[in-house]
Structures are given as structure tokens and as C-alpha cells.
């Protein structure tokens, strides 16, 4: 034990070694302690994780079958080891980067393409069946040729850090497709690997980055450090909760049994504590230095900057990043809001950051569907949103201009539907944004009417022309 940190050295461990942690201590949820040595835990610093989660009652620190409303205060004696994925020892030197060099494309020349590793490649007939939906598929020559023809300069990968599918979804036969329930901030998710699950996913990811860099394309990761997949007091004990719940998470002051939830996921990572900030910074440096990525898009970035409860542009999170000689040199993109009070922070991030400009998206959608009195704001958004960024002299490249993203309607949806119809994904259309500022051009849904279809095609051209002529960094979604 050194400075309140427990550590152990295993001299005979080799690459491929599987392991997990058991942490003993007080089980006292009302005071924030949820230690339970019956639970095998994922190492927060694990470089690779073997598999997806196999849901079982033993994964919960409490007796989930207890009928009382306070069952999260009970103690589970079930051993979770058979059902939790294992951590893998990885040899970082076992890969030849062969002179790989980051493209370092200036912000003003950047065009971002948001993609999902599986969704973008799973149905591509030019990619061999055995690698579709994987990092290897992104590295395939047909994929890279398409990127080059499209003219994009950076791919923004939706979450690839190891994540879980919530039990509720699993019980309904559904899956966490997007991946915003991270449980391993250093580990590339094994689901997107065509190789062995004993660490080979790390090398497959590196090969993908190397191939993209050779083509002059940057790799940006969508990262969700604001929360984890462990949920609130009713969630499972998989890693952080069983190692140091009292410090890893923001707990309510009066009863530390409960979690602050600025993220809509049940918990909020506690970025006010040095060891938690260190974990995040170590993770970012690892992805830059060892995995050679070129930047990050921070999910719900306002949460990371909350000091006590308010978002603070002088927070320790920003301060440490700007002082770091490695992290400060890559692209830093923010989703500049969260779900808490005062969380909408467009235009409030410090110099060196670019922001997803939600006001650009909303204004351009409203303008082209004919909302009144939009011309003045449209001109502001078209010319770089200086009303948002002039105070800090940040310039147009502080604005990530986008019309569509993984959230909400696609471009085709925008000109086809006035209402959402999310029925086929099993959520009974209760998910997703209901107000998309869309216009169906006269008929709801697909139609054979040639006039409506021509109007829709024209609207798509209007949207894309606006995007590419606007001052700022354009982003497309695959």
C-alpha cells in the first residue's frame, strides 16, 4: 500500500494471462461503501477484456431477489466470477507501427465522418464476411477507398471502449448498439474484433489506425468518461463500484446510498477527485501514445467540468488537459451539454476545444423548413456562429457544424417524416427525440409522388450545400 493505493506485482504473469480483482472492505451503502469480496471485478486499467457480460443475479452486490424496496442495502454472497468477463494482460510492444505518423490535419481543413464500426461495415459486400462489423473491416481497402472518394479527413468512431448491454435490454432480446455504457476505459471492445478475444483486439485496433493514417485519415474516438455502465444503487457491481464506490462516483451528500445523475444513466463519475481525474487522463494518454488516436469527442462533456454542481470552465478537468503535453496536442471535441441544471454550455468551452454546435443544427433545420424570422440567425450560423465564440476569440473552427448525428433523424428522415416512428427497435417509439424540426415535404413517409420526391431531393441538396459552405468544421454521419 502506497499513499492510500493498494498494489501488487505478479512476476510470472505473461501476455494472455486472465485476471480480475476481489476487494474486501465494509459493505455500508448508506455511507457510500459497497465492497463485496464475492464479486470478481474488472480492472479499471485493463488493456483488454475477454468477452461480453453474461447477466446473472451474482453480478449485483446486493440480493436482487429480496422483495423489499430497500434490497440494495442487503448483501449478496453469490460469486460472480463465472459470469464476469476477465481482464487480459497485453504486451504493448508486440506490434510494429512501422513509422506510423499522425496526419495532424489542421482544424480548418478537417471534415469529420461519424461512423459505427459494426453498422458501417456489416452489410458491405466488398468486405469479406468474416471481418464485417470489425476494426479489420474499417481497415479494409474498400472502406478506405470510399473514405478517400468521399473527401473526409477524420473518422469519429462511436464508442469502442469496452461497454456493456444493460440487463433490461438483454431481457428484452435487445442490445446496446451505440455503446455509451463503458466499463473499460482502456480496452477496445472485443465485439468489434475479428481476432481472438485474448488481447488480439488491441492489435487489430492498432492495425486499423495504422491503415487509416497511411491514407491520411485521422481517428477520433467518441468517449463517455462522464458515467459508467454500473448504473445507480440498483445497478450491478462490475468494477468501480466494488473497488471504491465512495470516490469513483458522485454520491448525494445526505445519504451516500444514492447517486447524482447528470447523465441520464444512473450515475456520474466524480471528476472532482484527483485519482479519478488521473484515471481519465491516463486513459486519454494511453489511447494517444499507445493506440495512436488523433483526438476525442467527449460525450456529455459539461458533466466532466462540474465543480460541486455548477459547470466551471476553470475546472480541474480543463486545467489538467491544457497543461498536459500529450493530450493538449490532439483534437478535443465536446458535446457541450448534459442533463443537469445549467448543463447547456454551447460557446462556453475554453480555447483549444471545438464544440458540437446544436444551435447550428437547429437553426439550419428550421430555416430550410420555412420557419419565420430565421434569416438573421441563419446568417450568424452560416458565417461561423461568432455570437457564440467571439468572446474568447476562438474563431469558426470552434464550431462543429452538423445537420444530423447518431441522435435523432437521419438526413432522409428530415425530409420524409414530421413524426418519429421508432417501433422496429423494440422500444415502442418511447426512445429518441420527438421534436426533430423536420418537414415531410407534403406527405408523411415514403411516397411515389414525383413532385414530393423531387422536393425532398432538393431539400437534401440545400442541407448539404449549406453545411459545406458554412464557416466551421463540417461533420457528416454515416
From TrEMBL:
<dbReference type="GO" id="GO:0004135">
    <property type="term" value="F:amylo-alpha-1,6-glucosidase activity"/>
</dbReference>
<protein>
    <recommendedName>
        <fullName>Glycosyl hydrolase family 13 catalytic domain-containing protein</fullName>
    </recommendedName>
</protein>
<dbReference type="InterPro" id="IPR011837">
    <property type="entry name" value="Glycogen_debranch_GlgX"/>
</dbReference>
<dbReference type="InterPro" id="IPR044505">
    <property type="entry name" value="GlgX_Isoamylase_N_E_set"/>
</dbReference>
<dbReference type="InterPro" id="IPR014756">
    <property type="entry name" value="Ig_E-set"/>
</dbReference>
<dbReference type="InterPro" id="IPR006047">
    <property type="entry name" value="GH13_cat_dom"/>
</dbReference>
<dbReference type="Pfam" id="PF02922">
    <property type="entry name" value="CBM_48"/>
</dbReference>
<dbReference type="InterPro" id="IPR017853">
    <property type="entry name" value="GH"/>
</dbReference>
<feature type="domain" description="Glycosyl hydrolase family 13 catalytic">
    <location>
        <begin position="114"/>
        <end position="475"/>
    </location>
</feature>
<dbReference type="GO" id="GO:0005980">
    <property type="term" value="P:glycogen catabolic process"/>
</dbReference>
<comment type="similarity">
    <text>Belongs to the glycosyl hydrolase 13 family.</text>
</comment>
<dbReference type="InterPro" id="IPR004193">
    <property type="entry name" value="Glyco_hydro_13_N"/>
</dbReference>
<dbReference type="Pfam" id="PF00128">
    <property type="entry name" value="Alpha-amylase"/>
</dbReference>
<keyword id="KW-0378">Hydrolase</keyword>
<keyword id="KW-0326">Glycosidase</keyword>
<dbReference type="InterPro" id="IPR013783">
    <property type="entry name" value="Ig-like_fold"/>
</dbReference>
Amino acid at each position: 500500500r502506497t499513499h492510500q493505493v493498494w498494489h501488487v506485482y505478479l512476476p510470472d504473469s505473461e501476455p494472455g494471462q486472465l485476471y480480475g480483482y476481489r476487494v474486501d472492505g465494509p459493505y455500508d451503502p448508506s455511507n457510500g461503501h459497497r465492497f463485496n469480496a464475492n464479486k470478481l471485478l474488472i480492472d479499471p486499467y485493463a488493456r483488454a477484456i475477454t468477452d461480453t457480460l453474461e447477466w446473472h443475479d451474482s453480478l449485483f452486490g446486493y440480493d436482487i431477489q429480496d422483495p423489499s424496496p430497500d434490497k440494495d442495502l442487503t448483501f449478496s454472497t453469490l460469486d460472480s466470477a463465472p459470469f464476469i468477463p476477465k481482464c487480459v494482460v497485453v504486451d504493448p510492444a508486440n506490434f510494429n507501427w512501422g513509422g506510423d505518423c499522425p496526419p495532424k490535419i489542421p482544424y480548418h481543413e478537417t471534415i469529420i465522418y461519424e461512423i459505427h464500426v459494426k453498422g458501417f461495415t456489416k452489410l458491405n459486400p466488398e468486405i469479406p464476411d468474416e471481418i464485417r462489423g470489425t476494426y479489420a473491416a474499417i481497415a479494409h481497402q474498400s472502406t478506405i477507398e470510399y473514405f478517400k472518394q468521399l473527401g473526409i479527413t477524420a473518422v469519429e468512431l462511436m464508442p469502442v471502449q469496452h461497454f456493456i448491454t444493460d440487463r433490461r435490454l438483454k431481457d428484452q432480446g435487445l442490445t446496446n448498439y451505440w455503446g455509451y455504457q463503458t466499463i473499460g476505459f482502456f480496452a477496445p471492445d472485443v465485439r468489434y474484433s475479428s481476432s481472438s478475444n485474448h488481447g488480439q483486439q488491441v492489435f487489430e485496433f492498432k492495425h486499423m489506425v495504422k491503415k487509416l493514417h497511411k491514407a491520411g485519415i485521422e481517428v477520433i474516438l467518441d468517449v463517455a468518461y462522464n458515467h459508467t455502465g454500473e448504473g445507480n444503487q440498483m445497478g450491478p457491481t462490475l468494477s468501480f463500484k466494488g473497488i471504491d464506490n465512495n470516490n469513483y462516483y458522485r454520491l448525494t451528500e445526505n445519504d451516500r446510498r444514492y447517486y447524482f445523475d447528470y447523465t441520464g444513466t444512473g450515475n456520474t463519475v466524480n471528476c472532482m477527485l484527483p485519482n479519478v481525474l488521473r484515471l481519465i487522463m491516463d486513459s486519454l494518454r494511453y489511447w494517444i501514445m499507445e493506440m495512436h488516436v488523433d483526438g476525442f469527442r467527449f460525450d456529455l462533456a459539461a458533466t466532466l467540468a462540474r465543480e460541486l454542481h455548477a459547470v466551471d470552465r476553470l475546472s480541474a478537468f480543463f486545467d489538467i488537459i491544457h497543461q498536459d503535453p500529450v493530450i493538449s496536442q490532439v483534437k478535443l471535441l465536446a458535446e457541450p451539454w448534459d442533463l443537469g441544471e445549467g448543463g447547456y454550455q454551447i460557446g462556453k468551452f475554453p480555447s483549444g476545444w471545438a464544440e458540437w454546435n446544436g444551435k447550428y443544427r437547429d437553426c439550419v433545420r428550421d430555416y430550410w423548413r420555412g420557419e419565420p424570422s430565421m434569416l438573421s440567425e441563419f446568417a450568424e450560423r452560416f458565417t461561423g456562429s461568432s455570437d457564440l465564440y467571439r468572446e474568447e476569440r476562438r474563431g469558426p473552427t470552434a464550431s462543429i457544424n452538423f445537420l444530423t448525428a447518431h441522435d435523432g433523424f437521419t438526413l432522409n428522415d428530415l425530409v420524409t417524416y414530421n413524426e418519429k416512428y421508432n417501433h422496429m427497435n423494440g422500444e415502442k417509439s418511447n426512445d429518441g427525440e420527438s421534436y426533430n424540426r423536420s418537414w415531410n415535404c407534403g406527405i408523411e413517409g415514403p411516397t411515389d409522388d414525383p413532385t414530393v420526391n423531387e422536393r425532398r431531393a432538393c431539400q437534401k441538396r440545400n442541407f448539404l450545400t449549406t453545411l459545406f459552405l458554412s464557416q466551421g468544421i463540417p461533420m457528416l454521419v454515416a
